[in-house]
Design brief:
This protein is an alpha+beta fold. 35% of the residues lie in helices and 16% in strands. The protein contains 20 helices and 19 strands. The chain has helices at 11-14, 92-95, 151-164, 228-235, 248-259, 265-279, 284-301, 325-331, 378-392, 406-415, 425-436, 441-452, 456-469, 473-480, 482-485, 501-509, 518-541, 549-562, 597-601, 606-614; strands spanning 67-68, 78-81, 88-90, 147-148, 169-174, 178-183, 191-196, 203-209, 306-311, 317-323, 337-344, 352-359, 365-373, 399-402, 420-423, 566-569, 574-579, 582-587, 592-593. The strands form 4 sheets. Strands 9-10-13-12-11-14-15 form a 7-stranded mixed sheet, with helices on both faces. A 5-stranded antiparallel sheet has the order 4-8-7-6-5. Strand 6 and strand 7 form a beta hairpin. Helix 5 packs across helix 6 and helix 18 (549-562) crosses helix 20 (606-614).
Length: 615
């Protein structure tokens, strides 16, 4: 269920606004971030499904179940449990503050609750135990004394009920205080009357003649109440999964099967768009207006998270950066190798998604930060990487891995002058194949093996085998820099991160989510990270060892191989290890092995484990 929040005056102070930033093409077509808007509710569920904020005035009720003080009908205030302050916080504290930084906040538009296909959900008569409404929902039947949050919700319920029960109605009388609807057949006695409650936006059904006296053959499969917005309410649960493909023809078939309604293609198409808009937090323009309030709540309910929102002088969206607290805290336990990549967003205003990820101890994708910019240019990449540096810091052991995009190279040099910038070996291989028209799979394997080789001797054998078969490849690869794409020449440890696969895999997970409006997209990313972190935390709590499962499995495999090796002691700390037809020297004082896996992976190799077994 969507939940709501209206940003207070402190919101903008917590969302960093850096105006008039230099460089980068600006997308002037983007909507205003803080301009006047008719939609300021903030659908959000930031920290957990059970916790949320709602700081708003009545008469507009919230989407969440709240406790209402019935003894103060005159004030008609709503109390909530707030994580911002200590204990319970009254909504009046925020309502009395000016909201000039954002502009005057209009009442929250009413949106019907999510319900299942059987008709259960929140709605109906007020019940203190059930929250504002009892059982029924928008798919429930109309009955006397039932309360609705607005006239629109009442009409939605009437329309869906008429579709389900296969009759049509017309509005007989309607004004701002009451409404009367009747069956379209002149002799039918079915009717409903509802009145607006005094000093409230609520509407109550005061009279309901629930008996149809119209002829049976009067019912038809085409019903006037099956408008696009009603169809959208009926089918919106089909679109909860962002990756769901539901064509207008599917909408027509679904409404025919579930309600016996025949729709035209245009009504089905518009109904699908209404469902998209309802579930995806409004239109793209409204989503940009929701973003500042969402980011404020994100920081309030996730202490330690870092959010940076930058707009242009014209108050247009320009850049966004988000790093969750769990990512910031967890990076200190990860290997200092960051993979960065960018991919296109697919919403109305497009843009580019920047990602920075690394490996956790189990070789799983560990998201560090995301950013949104206008395009993949020097200014956008520099801005994003500077934010990454501000949050995660820089040290001489840090390695940045990316493709060979020129903007990335200049941005890394400016943002991370002390870090080592490595190249993805697969992107470089694609460049080689394009430049030299090589399609020999065996030679490609020599190149990949050379890039992943641990010691120089092994590298030279594989490298010259590849270059001898591809004229010109040697000069090209040396001009790129052997240290930038090989493990054996790199001045810093790259561990096993020789590609940007983890970044591209993370982008692939978000392939459908990238179609959403900006606020819905950010929320889906937050939910994904939250789910991943929770699953891994649960798994880690069940471990009996301080080592990760991946490390334990690797050590077990290496321990088995070490049992077949012979160890010859040279002195107290130096040992010769015979591995088949090769000899390796292990120095236990310096923690080195001539195979170099021990030094570069920081994990005992087969030969070290053979020495440990021997001693």
């Amino acid at each position: 269920m969507l939940q709501s929040y209206i940003p207070g005056p402190e919101s903008r102070a917590n969302v960093e606004k850096v105006a008039n930033s230099s460089g980068g093409a600006r997308n002037n077509a983007l909507p205003e971030m803080f301009g006047s808007s008719d939609l300021y509710e903030m659908p959000i569920n930031v920290q957990s499904p059970e916790r949320t904020q709602y700081l708003a005035t009545n008469p507009s009720p919230s989407f969440v179940h709240v406790s209402r003080d019935l003894t103060e009908e005159k004030n008609d205030r709503v109390s909530i449990n707030s994580q911002v302050g200590q204990g319970e916080r009254r909504a009046e504290e925020v309502c009395t503050s000016p909201v000039e930084p954002y502009c005057n906040v209009p009442p929250i538009p009413v949106t019907v609750d999510e319900v299942d296909e059987e008709g259960s959900g929140s709605g109906g008569n007020f019940n203190r135990e059930d929250g504002i409404y009892g059982q029924g929902g928008i798919l429930g039947d109309i009955e006397e004394n039932r309360v609705f949050r607005s006239k629109k919700e009442l009409m939605t319920c009437l329309s869906i009920m008429s579709i389900r029960k296969k009759f049509q109605y017309k509005v007989f009388k309607s004004n701002t205080s009451f409404i009367v609807v009747r069956c379209v057949h002149p002799s039918c006695s079915w009717r409903v009357r509802a009145n607006k409650l005094i000093e409230s936006e609520y509407w109550m059904v005061t009279k309901h003649v629930n008996k149809h006296t119209c002829p049976t053959d009067f019912k038809t499969t085409r019903r006037r109440q099956a408008t696009s917005w009603v169809v959208g309410e009926c089918i919106k649960r089909r679109f909860i999964n962002p990756g769901r493909v539901f064509r207008p023809r599917d909408v027509i078939d679904d409404m025919k099967q579930r309600y016996g309604v025949e729709l035209s293609y245009s009504v089905a198409w518009r109904g699908r768009e209404c469902a998209y808009e309802n579930l995806r937090l409004g239109t793209p323009e409204q989503s940009y207006n929701l973003l500042p309030g969402y980011l404020h709540m994100l920081m309030q309910t996730n202490p330690g998270s870092v959010v940076n929102l930058e707009v242009t002088d014209g108050n247009k969206f320009q850049y966004l950066f988000i790093a969750f607290a769990a990512s910031i805290q967890g990076f200190s336990y990860c290997r200092p190798v960051i993979s960065i990549d960018a991919t296109h967003l697919k919403g109305k205003y497009r843009g580019v998604l920047f990602t920075a990820v690394c490996h956790d101890a189990n070789q799983q994708i560990f998201p560090l930060a995301i950013g949104v910019g206008d395009s993949e240019n020097d200014a956008a990449w520099t801005w994003f990487l500077k934010r990454v540096k501000d949050v995660f810091g820089e040290n001489p052991a840090l390695v940045i891995v990316s493709d060979r995009h020129r903007s990335i190279r200049s941005a890394v040099e400016e943002a991370f002058p002390r870090a080592f910038h490595g190249i993805c070996i697969y992107h470089l291989l694609n460049n080689l194949k394009t430049k030299f028209k090589s399609k020999n799979k065996e030679l490609e394997q020599h190149y990949i093996a050379a890039a992943k080789a641990y010691n120089l001797q092994e590298f030279h054998v594989l490298f010259y085998t590849f270059c001898s078969a591809v004229p010109g490849a040697k000069e090209y690869l040396e001009s790129v820099g052997l240290d930038r794409w090989t493990r054996s020449h790199a001045p810093c440890r790259r561990y096993n991160i020789m590609t940007t696969n983890i970044s591209e895999s993370f982008n692939a997970v978000l392939v459908k989510v990238r179609e959403l409006p900006i606020t819905a997209f950010v929320n889906e990313v937050r939910l994904l990270c939250q789910r991943w972190f929770q699953q891994r935390r649960t798994k880690a709590n069940g471990c009996s060892s301080r080592m990760s499962t991946d490390v334990e499995n690797k050590l077990e495999e290496r321990r088995d191989r070490a049992q077949t090796m012979d160890v010859i002691c040279a002195d107290q700390y130096i040992f010769d290890v015979v591995d088949g037809d090769r000899n390796y020297c292990v120095d236990m004082a310096l923690w080195t092995c001539t195979c170099r896996k021990f030094q570069l992976d920081q994990l005992p190799c087969d030969h070290v484990l053979a020495v440990v077994r021997k001693t």
